[in-house]
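thought: fold this chain, then report.
action: predict
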Amino acid sequence: MSSERVSVVIPTWNCERYIAQTLDSVLAQSWKQLQVIVVDDGSSDRTPHIVAGYGDAVTLVTQRNQGVCVARNRGFEMSDGDFVCFLDHDDYWFAWKLERQVETFRRQPQVGVVFSGFALWLPGPDGHPAPDTLADDGDAAADPLASDPDYSGWIYHQFLIDCWALTSTAMIRRELFAASGGFDASLAYSEDWDLWLRLSRSAPFVKLRSVSTLYRQHPEQGNRRLREIDYRTRLLEEAHARWGLASPDGRKIEPQVFRRNLARYHMQFGLHHLEHGARAVALRSFARAWLLHPGRLRYGALIGATLAGWRPRTASVG
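observation:
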């Protein structure tokens, strides 16, 4: 067994309800060469007190509230592992997660990032996550290290379609993350997607088929907030302008696929804003969607319906 050290960086802010369960899942890992760093980003609840209760097993760093990117980057600066993982403060790992990823790196030394599938941890009737989502079926796989070829190798072109790598599932070679400059603190959203786009230009990825992580769903999640800027479409447009549509190995997506996908994101952004009454933002987004994909009648219909005063009860993602 090799002795590679894994640094686990957990940025947190006001997460007293979930942080202990997250930390317990890290400390229960079968891979024991661990460094666990929690960066508290100015919590006003009991989160720092709970983390401090773990003693020497966890390094607690406190700072004034500066956002998740600053917290993650600070945690990395304090780390010394051969590999680094950035775990969200409300997610959960199955016990074999790190061991399988380290073994994958050992077998494929050219790889820069190993990530995996995840399962949504949905709330039960009382509002808390349903306990049956803790069921671990990962060991049922015939080959625990089996990978998904469509999302392994040079996959920059895949990240032009969607952010396939959930941050909590990934493990990154230290030198690769250091060379990237880390998370972009100017981004309030899609900062993880931005990182994957940059890293996927520099190194191959591997996606393990097994589900290693539970992605907790609750009303306080950052991706549920209304934002003035459509970070997704801006990020993808900038990546396209800088690097084009092809991965370093030549695999690519076609221009019409990229445009139609971008149109879909503009539509989603518009529907989310229209749900909250921001009609002008919605109209701009629907117009951009229609210009990118004029053959999709729905976009024109949404413009007309919005001008007529229609407003959805819940945003659609069709």
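thought: worth noting. The mean pLDDT is 92.
final: tokens above.
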